[in-house]
Amino acid sequence: MKRTRNLAQEWKEWLAREGGRLLMYARQRTGSLEEAEDVLQDSLIRLWGYQKERGYCPPDVPLAFSVLRLVAMDAGRKKGRRKKRDEKVIQLHDYDEHWLDPTLEDDEEALLLRRAVEGLSDKLREVVTLKAWSGLTFAEIGAILKISHNTAASRYRYALELLQRELNHLKEERHA
């Protein structure tokens, strides 16, 4: 029980000494004070876990800054992905994604695109659907399909090449 009190006191003293600098660094790495506080809190939780081998003693300051930097970068990436996903949702609602709507098959380009996507192999079609219309990252697609993110990215690029070739071919035929 006494060791627990000592640890708590050590952490309180460490936070009193280093907390301001860590928060200032987090603030510089994020867009707002609220985000900085969240990043600092997440960093402290990670640091606590990392300190298991050291008897949960407060960490070295360079390690704390390093973990804070990584957590801030992760938070920035998540925020960027969330923003892109939100923008795509807004675009989907603002822009008439008519070719996804089977009731509007009279639109010739929508029909061509639908047929081209349907003509892809199952593996390629699945990756295109998850990436283009679900907004998932290649890492997320890889986890869902039980493949590496590199394989998911490769399938996506290959599918886009095939779709482009097919659509160019169909457009040339149409205008010939």
TrEMBL record:
Origin organism lineage: Bacteria, Pseudomonadati, Verrucomicrobiota, Verrucomicrobiia, Verrucomicrobiales
PANTHER family recorded: RNA POLYMERASE ECF-TYPE SIGMA FACTO, RNA POLYMERASE SIGMA FACTOR HI_1459-RELATED
InterPro entries in alphabetical order: RNA_pol_sigma-70-like, RNA_pol_sigma-70_dom, RNA_pol_sigma70_r4_t2, RNA_pol_sigma_r2, RNA_pol_sigma_r3/r4-like, WH-like_DNA-bd_sf
Coiled coil regions in record: none
Protein family per UniProt: Belongs to the sigma-70 factor family. ECF subfamily.
Domain annotation RNA polymerase sigma factor 70 region 4 type: ranges: 112-161
Protein name: Sigma-70 family RNA polymerase sigma factor
GO BP annotations listed: DNA-templated transcription initiation
Keywords: DNA-binding, Sigma factor, Transcription, Transcription regulation
Pfam families: Sigma70_r4_2
Originating organism: Roseibacillus ishigakijimensis
Recorded GO MF terms: DNA binding; sigma factor activity
NCBIfam families tied to this protein: sigma70-ECF
